[in-house]
Design brief:
Distance between the termini: 76 Å
Order of helices and strands: HHEEHHHHEHEEHHHE
Number of strands: 6
CATH topology of the largest domain: Cytochrome Bc1 Complex, Chain D, domain 2
Oligomer: single chain
Number of domains: 2
Number of helices: 10
Strand order of the largest sheet: 1-2
Strand content: under 5%
Shape: elongated
Length: 247
């Protein structure tokens, strides 16, 4: 059993050791902040985007770094999930990108303001948050199934790479909001695809598929690419797993 003087020494010594450890860890954390946050990437566009985010109270619906409301999606990694071109289309007209579903306010941002918001969100996505936000546990199981022999086709159009893959997957790469498109050539012909992309609502009223603005040439380029997809050595593609889709 400790005497009073020994207990006092033990208490004061322990307090000193743990205080020093706390201060040391705090100092180390503070020194790591510039590298973890990439503060050298905070450009004027990022600052303007943050001001737009705060001025319009975006955290009243969205969360960022886990902070905010939970009415709308978490946006820390939204640029990685959706891509900058898709986000810009969404900011331009939220209702059009999710017809009949999204309730996001139409802010009528200018092109520069949209670019600034995207720059801010891109910077947020580059911050090292030690694994946050975690990946959805069922994300891997939601990927499409393709021919084990691989996938071949024509060059992927730029519009497809920047917009369509935010929702659709080809070769297991892309989003899972819409159906995988590996075997779409077995389900739809060229005329059907052109009509569907041009105006999905006329084909299936109430569908969540957005009507993306594009030229006839761009639409034809996407359709020709999808029709060119085949398995290895031209083998038919294995059908994708059944899943909830908007088609």
């Amino acid at each position: 059993m400790l005497s009073k003087s020994q207990a006092r020494v033990f208490f004061l010594g322990g307090t000193g050791v743990f205080t020093a450890a706390f201060l040391g860890l705090t100092l180390d954390s503070m020194n790591q902040i510039p590298a973890l946050t990439h503060d050298d990437q905070i450009t004027p566009a990022v600052e303007r985007g943050k001001n737009i985010w705060e001025k319009n109270n975006c955290m009243g619906c969205h969360t960022l770094f886990g902070e905010g409301a939970y009415y709308a999606p978490e946006l820390t990694q939204v640029v990685a999930r959706r891509g900058k071109p898709w986000i810009k289309l969404f900011l331009k007209d939220p209702q059009r990108m999710f017809p009949g579903e999204r309730k996001m306010v139409q802010y009528h941002f200018t092109n520069e303001q949209m670019d600034d918001v995207i720059a801010f969100l891109e910077w947020c996505g580059n911050v090292n948050l030690q694994g946050f936000p975690p990946k959805p546990p069922l994300a891997a199981k939601m990927q499409s199934v393709i021919s084990s022999g691989g996938l071949s086709g024509g060059p992927q159009p730029e519009l497809f790479k920047t917009i369509c893959v935010a929702c659709h997957a080809v070769g297991g790469v892309g989003g899972v909001v819409g159906p995988p498109l590996d075997d779409v050539r077995q389900r739809k012909n060229r005329a059907d695809l052109l009509a569907w992309i041009a105006n999905p609502q006329t084909i299936k009223p109430g569908t969540a598929m957005p009507q993306i603005e594009m030229s006839d040439a761009q639409r034809a380029e996407i359709v020709d690419y999808l029709l060119s997809l085949t398995g290895a050595a031209g083998a038919p593609l294995a059908p994708a797993k059944p899943q909830e889709t908007y088609e």
